[in-house]
């Protein structure tokens, strides 16, 4: 004991002799400094990449979406880690559960591929008890997403004012067909938006009718825009502490994706659009951006060309771009080396009036090879080409499976199915792609765990009919 206290004393003596500056320096290095925020951002995590949770962990979404545009948005947020609670009408659910059904009695692929990684609760939003549950959900969630017809949310009593009073932090995000204006009250589906957003009038061939595209730019495109609006509003909320309304009109979303056509509309005032094959064919332009067939929308002319097997395979085609820097390589490849020095072909402006003939000549070469051979050969010379891949080929493509862009998930009533995983890859936020929920699969879990209702209260709610009213009505019908 004695020798111990001697050592203690010696140590404190030595400490007392230390210069004051050193003591100050030691004090200035408290452990808390390591975790202190830097400009409001925590210091970099030392956890291994991909082990620091997911980007939207802790964000809870009240998902009032249906059909495609809204569900696309909330599915992306779920892939990013948000807890997405999909509220569905009892007994019926999202209408797409039953649309285009391929397996009897099982939710359709239409539904399952747009509602992965979400939880489902059934609530009759027009039942007084249902309204009470919804109010409670509003208080527990960060974002409400909806794509009802104009006015439907208000008719449920969920006006922005009501929501904001219950939860000032709530972000209320909506997809509508049109923004404020003459068409704001209209119901809108995908192709209505493609037409009203300027896509259809500029798609197709000049001598044919307007065309809609297979890519769902009105629905999924707008859902994607909405997701960006939501994460931006979440980020702003970090500073302001309050939520806001986020609105994406499908017409606006389509126009945003078709903006190069509005570019061309303005260029028309200054002369013909020389990169359109119509120019080379000597056909005058009208007053509006015309349909451009398969012309490239940029400054590098391109067209879809036949490949070996085109007679029997509808997808034996390739998109070929005559990019200026590799023009010499193209001439060599197709057996026309003399074009490199010919003033009619050597420079891009000289080629514009001859595009049809140039592509016909290149096609003579592509028709001797499969689209994959053309792809391989051209890429050796840095020539940009795109094989026309069928959905069958995409479904079977190993690299898309490897990156998680195409994912197979198992489903209790339909068995395994393919879905599109997260097309946005974050290096520190692995995507969580799970099967879609069955109708009301998580009702009890959400009432218990999220809303903290007691067993007795849950029994009372069930007896009230708020979770099953529509079901009863349907049975009665
Ligand atoms: N409990 C009780 N009622 C519910 C409910 C629930 N859980 N969920 C929805 N409803 C009711 C709504 O209150 C509404 O009733 P109301 O019209 O009496 O107020 C009704 O169901 C559905 O509304 P609505 O959105 O009009 O559905 P719809 O099938 O008639 O129209 C669209 C579908 C897509 C045309 C329309 O919703 C729309 O234009 N949405 C905006 C644009 C959009 O997203 N379009 C793309 C879809 S991919």
Draw up the topology in text.
Elements: H1 2-17, H2 20-27, E1 60-64, H3 69-79, E2 83-88, H4 109-112, E3 119-122, H5 128-140, E4 143-146, H6 152-155, H7 160-166, E5 171-176, H8 190-196, H9 219-240, E6 245-249, H10 250-257, H11 259-267, H12 277-280, E7 302-306, E8 317-321, H13 327-333, H14 348-351, H15 355-366, H16 371-380, E9 385-387, H17 391-396, H18 398-402, E10 406-409, E11 417-420, H19 443-450, H20 455-464, H21 469-476
Parallel strand pairs: 1-2, 1-4, 2-3, 4-5, 5-6
Antiparallel strand pairs: 7-8, 8-9, 10-11
Helix pairs in contact: 3-9, 8-10, 9-10
The structure holds coenzyme A.
Coenzyme A is lined by residues 67-70, 87-89, 123-126, 147-149, 152, 155-156, 175-177, 187-189, 219.
**What is the overall pLDDT average?**
91
Q: Level of helix content? A: 25-40%
Number of strands: 11
Strand numbers in spatial order across the main sheet = 3-2-1-4-5-6
Task: Give the C-alpha Rg.
Answer: 30 Å
Number of helices: 21
**What small ligands are held by the chains?**
coenzyme A
**Mind describing the biggest β-sheet?**
6 strands, parallel
Give the overall shape, derived from the CA principal axes.
elongated
Strand content: 5-15%
Distance between the termini: 91 Å
Low-pLDDT sequence parts: 1-30, 470-477
Structural class: alpha/beta
Fold and architecture overview:
This protein has 477 residues and is α/β, with parallel strands linked by helices. It is 38% helix and 11% strand. Strands 3-2-1-4-5-6 form a six-stranded parallel sheet, with helices on both faces. The N terminus and C terminus are likely disordered. Bound molecules: coenzyme A (COA). Coenzyme A binds next to helix 3, strand 2, helix 6 and strand 5.
């Amino acid at each position: 004991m004695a020798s111990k206290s001697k050592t203690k004393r010696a140590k404190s003596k030595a400490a007392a002799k230390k210069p004051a500056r050193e003591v100050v320096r030691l004090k200035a290095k408290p452990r808390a400094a390591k975790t202190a925020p830097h400009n409001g951002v925590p210091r970099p995590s030392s956890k291994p990449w991909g082990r620091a949770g997911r980007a939207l962990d802790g964000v809870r979404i009240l998902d009032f979406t249906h059909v495609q545009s809204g569900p696309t948005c909330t599915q992306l947020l779920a892939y990013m880690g948000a807890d997405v609670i999909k509220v569905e009408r009892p007994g019926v659910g999202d209408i797409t559960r039953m649309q285009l059904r391929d397996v009897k009695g099982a939710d359709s692929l239409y539904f399952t591929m747009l509602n992965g990684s979400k939880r489902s609760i059934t609530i009759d939003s027009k039942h007084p008890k249902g309204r009470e549950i919804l109010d409670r959900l509003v208080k527990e969630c960060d974002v409400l997403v909806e794509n009802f017809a104009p006015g439907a949310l208000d008719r449920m009593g969920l006006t922005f004012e009501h929501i904001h009073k219950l939860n000032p932090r709530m972000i209320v995000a909506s997809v509508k067909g049109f923004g404020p204006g003459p068409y704001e009250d209209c119901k809108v589906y995908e192709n209505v938006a493609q037409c009203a957003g300027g896509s259809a009038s500029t798609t197709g061939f000049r001598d044919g009718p307007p065309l809609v595209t297979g890519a769902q730019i009105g629905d999924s495109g707008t859902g994607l825009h909405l997701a960006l609006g939501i994460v931006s509003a979440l980020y702003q909320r970090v500073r302001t502490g309050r939520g806001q309304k986020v609105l994406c009109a499908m017409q606006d979303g389509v126009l945003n994706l078709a903006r190069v056509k509005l570019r061309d509309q303005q260029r028309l005032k200054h002369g013909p659009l020389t990169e359109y094959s119509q120019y080379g064919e000597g056909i005058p332009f009208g007053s509006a951006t015309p349909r451009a067939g398969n012309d490239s929308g940029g400054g590098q002319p391109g067209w879809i060309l036949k490949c070996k097997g085109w007679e029997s395979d509808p997808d034996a085609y390739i998109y070929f771009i005559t990019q200026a820097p590799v023009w010499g390589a193209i001439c060599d490849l197709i057996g026309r080396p003399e074009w490199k020095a010919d003033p009619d072909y050597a420079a891009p402006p000289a080629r514009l009036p001859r595009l049809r003939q140039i592509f016909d000549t290149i096609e003579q070469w592509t028709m001797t090879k499969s689209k994959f051979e053309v792809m391989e050969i051209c890429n050796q010379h840095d020539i940009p080409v795109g094989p026309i891949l069928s959905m069958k080929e995409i479904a079977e493509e190993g690299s898309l499976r490897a990156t998680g862009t195409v994912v197979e998930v198992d489903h209790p009533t339909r068995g395994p199915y393919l879905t599109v995983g997260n097309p946005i890859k974050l290096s520190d936020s692995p995507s969580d792609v799970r099967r879609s929920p069955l109708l009301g699969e998580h009702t009890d879990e959400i009432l218990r765990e999220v809303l903290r209702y007691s067993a007795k209260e849950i029994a009372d709610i069930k007896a009230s009919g708020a979770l099953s009213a529509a079901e009863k009505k349907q049975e009665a019908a």
